[in-house]
Specification:
Helix content: 25-40%
Strand content: 15-25%
Largest sheet: 5 strands, parallel
CATH class of the largest domain: Alpha Beta
Strand order of the largest sheet: 5-6-7-3-8
CATH superfamily of the largest domain: P-loop containing nucleotide triphosphate hydrolases
Distance between the termini: 27 Å
Number of helices: 6
Number of domains: 2
Structural class: alpha/beta
Mean pLDDT: 90
Order of helices and strands: EEEHEEHHHEHEHE
CATH architecture of the largest domain: 3-Layer(aba) Sandwich
């Protein structure tokens, strides 16, 4: 067990405008946390701060030495590689079983040899999720992970992921605008308000 991730007095300002303001949060080890709030209130910025991609005032502890698996809002699949090759690039050698299992979980086995341009937006999204799943990591960080999926597919894919999270005890942080989604899959819901406060 690595312990909880703790933010103390975290603030972030862009061009004089506060995006996050004096946030103090604890993300529990082995739990699933949903981060909610309207667009533009700092949810993605919060994830980037946790990942060390953005600086901030205040402190973040508990991320030291972790291997985060990340799904950004954009799928970020390399267009010149097949879907399977995109996963292999991130996972490295010797992960054939993990890659096959992740593609199967995301219902993409038949698309493994296709390039991103041959995939629909929803398939690309599932490809990005498969890449994060195959990589593993001890914390999963997801920014709007189910965007672009129709309702039936979203419910099926999210249900599969939720069961996997429970079985693995993985720490998961995901951003969503969907309160139903948050209530269904998260242990804890964090709501950001105007000005990036709780």
């Amino acid at each position: 067990m690595r312990g909880d991730i703790v933010l103390e007095g975290v603030s972030k300002t862009y061009e004089g405008k506060p995006v996050l303001r004096d946030l103090s949060l604890r993300f529990e080890e082995g739990k699933v946390t949903a981060i909610m709030g309207p667009s533009g209130l700092g949810k993605t910025t919060l994830l980037k701060i946790l990942l060390g991609l953005e600086s901030c005032e205040g402190s973040v502890t508990g991320m030291e030495g972790r291997r985060p698996a990340v799904v950004f809002q954009e799928s970020r699949l390399l267009p010149w590689l097949s879907l399977k090759q995109n996963l292999e690039l991130v996972c490295g050698p010797g992960k054939d079983r993990e890659i096959a299992d992740a593609l199967a979980l995301m219902e993409l086995t038949d698309a493994a040899d296709k390039k991103p341009a041959e995939l629909s937006g929803g398939m690309q999204r599932r490809g990005a999720l498969a890449r994060a799943i195959a990589y593993g990591g001890d914390i999963l960080v997801l920014d709007e992970p189910f965007t672009g999926l129709d309702e039936d597919l979203k419910e099926r894919i999210a249900g599969k992921l939720s069961r996997q999270w429970r079985e693995s005890g993985q720490t998961v942080l995901f951003v969503t605008h969907d309160s139903t989604e948050a209530k269904a899959y998260a242990d804890t819901i964090v709501k950001l308000n105007e000005g990036g406060s709780l």
